[in-house]
Amino acid sequence: MKKSLFLIVLLFCLSLVSVEAQELHARVSINSDRIQGTNKSVFNSLEVALNNFISNQKWGSATFAQNEKIECSFALTIMTVTGDNSFSAELLIQAQRPVYNSAYNTTLVRFRDTEINFEYMDNTPFQIVGNMIDNNLVATITFWANLILALDFDSFSPKGGSVFFRQAQSIVMQAQGAASWNGWTAFGKANNKHGIITSFIDESMSPFRELWYTYHRKGLDEMTANPDRARTTILNVLPVLEELKKNSRVSTVLLQLFADSKLDEIVSMSSKAGTEEKQTSYELLRKLYPTMSTQLEPLKK
């Protein structure tokens, strides 16, 4: 009887672990090679603190099994030491999701955030108290975690990531109140964090999110079952990008984000199409990305 009761309690506890499992399977790395004459232990401590922060944070209310976690990486390069416990850095963010019934993973985002300044004291943990964020690096990681989740959820259901886009927008609004934090202003670079979230939530960009769902759920996820039909579905939805480019000033950010994550993939699948379909894809992509002719070269063969 006692043994049975123990097993019941154990299974209940394991079920709670599954329910509470965080959504991201993240790898954090710190590159401090540019920094000379500084005690490098602070960067080891920083790496541990960031890994713990991302791994222990519950970003939303959805239940994720261990094998459903989103694979992502955050590679932080320390550029300069700007003062006592103060640094400037760049962050390479990458995330991917599996394609249904295959061993292939498709990229959700690949972006280099070049505007990060932050403070960090050795052996200090990162945390969010309530909804308040008091560190630019924490705000940056939280913004990108929400954007990754938004893109992942959007890829499985039409506009399924809306709650995460709103959370990312809320972080931007909060960060703009910290005058010393860079990378958040409405008047900065077009592809800073403000520019990115503004592009996604702009109503005129709604067709992009619909394209994102079709590309993944009706295209890539059908590739194993019917490769020709899946490829045609993807190539037929790409003209949406051309319309967006014509009609909105904020489309530039989304078009570049799309190219960074998807262009090589599209070229690879288009190269397996017939001559006419391949040529149509080439002409469309050349108009969208005139400076990326090298990447498009395989479609001319």
Q: Could you please describe the fold and organization of this structure?
A:
It contains 11 helices and 4 strands. It has a domain at 206-301. The chain is of the alpha+beta class. The longest helix is centred in the middle third of the chain and has 21 residues, at 136-156. α3 (136-156) packs across α6 (206-219), α4 (162-175) runs antiparallel to α5 (193-201) and α6 runs antiparallel to α7. β1, α2 and β2 (70-83) form a beta-alpha-beta unit. It has a 4-stranded mixed beta sheet with strand order 1-2-3-4. Residues 1-21 have low confidence and may be disordered. 50% of the residues lie in helices and 17% in strands. The protein has helices spanning 2-19, 41-56, 136-156, 162-175, 193-201, 206-219, 227-237, 239-247, 251-270, 275-288, 293-296, and strands at residues 24-31, 70-83, 86-98, 105-119.
Give a quick rundown of the structure.
The chain is an alpha+beta fold. Helix content is 50%, strand content 17%. Strands 1-2-3-4 form a four-stranded mixed β-sheet.
Question: What share of the residues lie within helices?
Answer: 40-55%
Q: Roughly what fraction of the amino acids lie in strands?
A: 15-25%
Order of helices and strands: HEHEEEHHHHHHHHH
* Shape field: globular
Main sheet: strand order: 1-2-3-4
- The residue-averaged pLDDT reads 89
